[in-house]
UniProtKB/TrEMBL annotation:
UniProt keyword terms in alphabetical order: DNA-binding, Transcription, Transcription regulation
Pfam families: HTH_IclR, IclR_C
Organism encoding this protein: Aliigemmobacter aestuarii
Protein name: IclR family transcriptional regulator
SUPFAM superfamilies associated with the record: GAF domain-like, Winged helix' DNA-binding domain
Domain annotation HTH iclR-type: ranges: 25-86
Listed Gene3D superfamilies: 3.30.450.40, Winged helix-like DNA-binding domain superfamily/Winged helix DNA-binding domain
Region Disordered, annotated ranges: 1-20
PROSITE patterns to which the protein is assigned, alphabetical: HTH_ICLR, ICLR_ED
Length: 274
């Protein structure tokens, strides 16, 4: 009896899981790298992009013009300073439509901002980093600012540590192995032992604290949002300057953030871990 070959899933080539250079489109990879650099800046000139990417001016210009035709980038006069365009926003917004968390978190975040007087943030893990997907800014003149699309290390982020605290130990170890524990301030956690202690305290009290670990003079208090399986899928936080958010305030703020995160968990059909 001749055994029939098992068909591959439709739409996937044989090399679907092969991410080596032979299966990447170099021009597309180059263009996306340019887009990422523009997204992380307040605008760059053609020569600056060429120097930053170690590509020729002509190569960078062709990639930018291609992206420009799709609205992904735009050039600002005078000086031909390039910026991310509206097309990139439309494409990026599709990511937010994958989940109801952003929509369901909006009201709890607005309420949290009004109750605490500080900026409320929503973030998820992406590529072993925290990706901020939504923010409700306080009206205070001095405030924290994490625009949607901002990314940062997990070990020095309130939201990052809120997620890590409920991740399986092997997942935490993998993230640390790949990303390391970089020092940003004198209060940054830079050892696995110290991180494990901090995450244990986070689980015990129900919320995480970033005590000026990423940026001096800024504190953050965060709590996780869980899915239907009791797994952490996002984090909610309030952040502000240390002179307004004192360590003595973190317990009170932590209870408020924890309650807001729990409301989002309930609103999205999630459940607390057993």
């Amino acid at each position: 009896m001749v055994q029939k070959p098992v068909p591959r899933p439709r739409g996937r080539p044989k090399a679907f899981h092969d991410k080596t250079d032979q299966n990447t489109v170099q021009s597309l990879d180059r263009a996306l790298s340019l887009l990422e650099r523009l997204a992380a800046s307040s605008g760059m000139t053609l020569s600056e992009l060429a120097t930053d990417t170690d590509e020729s001016v002509a190569t960078v210009y062709r990639a930018l013009v291609t992206l420009q035709t799709h609205g992904m980038v735009e050039a600002e006069e005078p000086g031909q300073v390039w910026h991310v365009g509206a097309g990139a926003f439309r494409v990026g917004s599709a990511f937010l439509r994958r989940t109801k968390i952003v929509e369901r978190a909006r009201h709890p975040m607005d309420r949290l901002m009004r109750e605490t007087g500080e900026t409320a943030n929503l973030g998820v893990e992406s590529g072993d980093q925290v990706l901020f997907v939504s923010q409700v800014e306080t009206h205070q003149a001095i405030r924290a600012f994490f625009p949607p699309g901002t990314m940062g290390p997990m070990h020095v982020s309130g939201i990052g540590k809120a997620l890590l605290a409920w991740y399986p130990p092997e997942k935490v170890a993998g993230i640390v192995a790949r990303r390391g524990l970089e020092r940003f301030t004198s209060l940054s956690i830079t050892s696995e032992t110290a991180l494990a202690r901090d995450l244990a305290r986070t689980r015990d009290r129900g919320f995480a604290i970033d005590d000026q670990e990423r940026t001096e003079g800024m504190r953050c208090v965060a709590a996780p949002i869980f899915n239907a399986h009791g797994e952490p899928v996002a984090g909610l936080s309030v952040s502000g300057p240390a002179f307004r958010v004192g360590l003595s305030d973190t317990a009170r703020l932590g209870e408020m953030v924890r309650a807001a995160a729990d409301r989002v968990t309930d609103a999205t059909g999630g459940s607390q871990p057993s």
